[in-house]
Amino acid sequence: MSELLEEMGRFFDRRVDNYEKHMLESVTDSNEFYTETARLVPKREDLNLLDLGCGTGLELDEILKLNPTINVTGIDLSSKMLERLKSKYIDKADQLTLINGSYFDVDFGMGKFDSALSVQTMHHFTHKQKVTLYKKIYYCLSSDGFYIETDYIANSQKDEDFFFAESKRLRSELGLTHGFYHIDTPCTAENQIKLLKSAGFKEVKLHRQYKNTAIFMAKKI
């Protein structure tokens, strides 16, 4: 397998030891967007939160400071990332439900969560895959629930088109027709808003944009 395109779970398993250092020191504006994302999660006792692509819990580090009673269901393809997250919060074990798998396959349930979020995980998928997932998120939220997405974005349609063309080219060259592989395919902020609205969210807004990352908020009603 070419190192240019690693299977997603394997990619993050191999990088677990340096992941937090990389995200906090090498990703532009990360200290700001993790803090701002946490600030948007309601500070309500016993809140039920779905965290998609939770990794080692960088966003949860900030959220738990503000809402120590929150209940979190975290889903991630990397078993080693989840092990690291679990070891960080042994004292919060009763508040964490960690699932090793693809959030495209896991059943979220109906109306189960007060809020859902994802941080730096959605920029690996096609428009069609995103809409399919966003519909699942929409239905798993309570009537007044909302979804927060903090993610890497393309700064122009030209850039977005290039990223998707490269993904298609590499997949074709390697004969990959199924599965999730680590290659960046970020969308523009405008397209991201359209995708969330097409999944059913009634109010979608760009909450804040940094240099290469944006925070979106999508309300169910």
Automatic annotation (TrEMBL):
Claim: Transferase is one of the keywords in the record: yes
GO molecular function term, any single one: methyltransferase activity
Domain Methyltransferase: 50-145
Gene Ontology BP terms: methylation
Keywords, alphabetical: Methyltransferase, Transferase
This protein's record includes keyword Hydrolase: no
SUPFAM superfamilies found in the cross-reference section: S-adenosyl-L-methionine-dependent methyltransferases
Pfam families tied to this protein: Methyltransf_25
InterPro entries in the cross-refs: COMT-like, Erg6_SMT_methyltransf, Methyltransf_25, SAM-dependent_MTases_sf
Protein's UniProt name: Class I SAM-dependent methyltransferase
